[in-house]
Amino acid sequence: MTVSKQIPVIIVGGGQAGLSVSYYLKQRGIEHLVFERRTKMHSWASQRWDSFTLVTPNWQCELPGHPYDGDDPFGFMRREEILDYLQRFADKVQAPIREGVAVEQVSIDDDGGYTVQTSEGNYRCQQVVVASGGYHSPIIPRMAEKLPAQTFQMHSAQYKNPQQLPEGPVLVVGSGQSGAQIAEDLHLAGRQVYLATGNAPRVARQYRGKDVVEWLHEMGYYDISVEDHPLREGVRDNTNHYVTGRDGGREIDLRRFALEGMELFGALEDFEDGELLFRDNLTSNLDQADDTYRNINARIDDYIAKAGIDAPPAEPYTPVWAPQQERTRLKLAEAGIASIIWCIGFKPDFGWLDAPVFNGMGQPKHRRGVSPQPGLYFIGLPWLHTWGSGRFSGVARDAEYLGQKIAEYESAEVADAVSA
């Protein structure tokens, strides 16, 4: 294989994580290149719906050298505002990025370095940072193949607005952050929505005078590392709580949607003989989500009491609706469902990375982004180190740490070369 150029460090991915690492490498004077197969921040521009907002307050946006710089720190940036914020960050970093260049394979050389095969040629480097995130391949179940050809189907990553869809009722599958918010978007647009729920938890937006995120920040939750979390690495498998920043921020209560005409079901299991088949677990899904909601509020209550904080009194949550009888079968044609939106997540795809660092689920093994393979790092993954690792609030801390590790590795390589 012909190698066109030698670069000390190559970063794969030009989103906020990759550019954050570039920021710290530039500070240290470490030569590097960033490869982005599409354009900077591509997923933010292409995989978010029109009414998308952050679900965490703007003050939590702390990219390297680029904290939130708007006039609404306790608000929630809309999609276009997020893109503007990210563009200003990219303009500050001025990363050495090659947009439109796909990394096709990364392999380990005999001397411990790496060969990086790209769509524009081959490179060799001593260190590689994988900043492509963990959400690569949209999950659509095989049962989708059995649905009638005229049923319009899309993944949440493709959804933009209700006008994309054919007229008629819509089935949304999944009630995590994307599913709950897309169901709300369609509901507010006047569409008849059927929602197949999952085991996603929920959280209050405001509680006892503050946004719940602000309380949890004060309580130190966002500084807890994976190693210190009670679930350890298992926390990486948790589904995000559903809540929204829409219209200034509010909680999402699926029970209220049901009162307003949205029809809720348990988890979707199959499609047979023209019927959608659901699990008999709607009640438990709603109850478990509410239990998480109450537990978080109770932890805030304990914190307020122990710290002696003067806060408004608690307002206990009372369910506004409960299913009287769960439907587990729904005839697709009779319901008139014309569209299905799959909101059941993504799976990782690191097939281009030839390195012995993956577990049986295809997830990379690492400790705070440092893999067991020398010179190979990961960033931008959920709970890489803390809750904020995959978000604007914690990626800077992770990037700075990796910048230090990359510098240490480079210094050790130079020292070995000199001693040899």
From TrEMBL:
Pfam families tied to this protein: Pyr_redox_3
Keywords: Coiled coil, Oxidoreductase
Entries under InterPro entries matching the protein: Auxin_biosynth/cation_transpt, CHP04046_FMN-dependent, FAD/NAD-bd_sf
Gene3D superfamilies: FAD/NAD(P)-binding domain
SUPFAM superfamilies: FAD/NAD(P)-binding domain
One example GO MF annotation: monooxygenase activity
Domain of life of the organism encoding this protein: Bacteria
Coiled coil: 279-306
PANTHER family referenced in this protein's UniProt entry, alphabetically: FLAVIN-BINDING MONOOXYGENASE-LIKE PROTEIN (AFU_ORTHOLOGUE AFUA_4G09220), FLAVIN-CONTAINING MONOOXYGENASE
Name of the protein in its database record: MSMEG_0569 family flavin-dependent oxidoreductase
Species for this entry: Spongiibacter nanhainus
